């Protein structure tokens, strides 16, 4: 059953319907021009051009990242020009996956956030600011980490990003993650003629895997560790003097994650000692914090989803993936809800193709409406915005 919409909300929905062709064309353009993380020049330029055309102020090269940007639209206060009002941001993602393209639906994410920002700018809101922030490279650790460190999200009252998925869901957590690369250094030798003269770096990597597999038995249920051998040598008759393994380590909170990483580093040191190798390790992607969604903000979002006819909204859940949106949620009140696109999982060609379908376009517009209506609810109800802020501060005080 739909909730009743106000005349202003009805007007906002109509504005979005009037923008449908432009929003769907934007999503399709990004889908048909997939670019990997930090190389999303076509996507970011297209987004900036559309936002500038709609009177948003554009800041390029945000935090020194070429494909990151911030587009701002200020509603001028009618009475007291010293007041700034709420600042609400919609985040864009637009990097693609290797080989698959936009199998995670980032083209839709970018178009939904951009469409919501533009639609809201057409309303006569007394005071406040809308930001549409372009965030590259979510698939490889994420620019939101660097943007967070640069203070881009620090003064925001609410931050939203809506993700296409196989279900509707407004409240879900994600795991904190660290990406560690282990490099072992040994000594080459002829593997048959003089094996005693070699120091096998690949053997150290194998012992690392054995040690980490033994560690799994003694980890909490929320912990995850998984990796690959990214370099195991050049030829079977040469003792490898260089070998490399890359791992993701995940946990529900940062403190426990760091305990796991410390144990893994000790295991790696042991593997080096066992084989006579030397070792170095470093992070090879940005680390992501655990996502702490704002429950009150999620509740408002759910209410607006229901108001536009979206049903079957799944309850709260702890997800086992990771996202750089987690870093944002430690700085400002944030949500990372999901909207159902079809009965298939992410990172697939099926999801990619669905974003270009008529069904995908319908979901896209519903997503724009959900985001825009949620922001409008905050602009129109300072008490709700204050309650969202209070919950965020209370949640952080327990961290």
The figure for the number of domains is: 2
Output the CATH homologous superfamily of the largest domain. Zn peptidases
Order of helices and strands: HHHEEEHEHEEEEEHEEHEHEEHEEHHH
Number of separate helices: 12
- State the low-pLDDT regions, or none: none
Shape: elongated
What topology, given as strand order, has the largest sheet? 1-2-4-3-5-15
End-to-end Cα distance: 38 Å
Query: Mean of the pLDDT scores?
Result: 95
Q: Output the radius of gyration.
A: 24 Å
What is the CATH first-level class name of the largest domain?
A: Alpha Beta
Task: Describe the model.
With 399 residues, this protein is an alpha/beta fold. It folds into two domains: 277 residues, 3-Layer(aba) Sandwich (Aminopeptidase); 108 residues, Alpha-Beta Plaits. Helices cover 41% and strands 19% of the residues. The chain contains twelve helices and 16 strands. The strands form five sheets. It has a six-stranded mixed β-sheet with strand order 1-2-4-3-5-15. The longest helix is centred in the C-terminal third of the chain and has 23 residues. The protein starts with 6 loop residues before the first helix and ends with a helix.
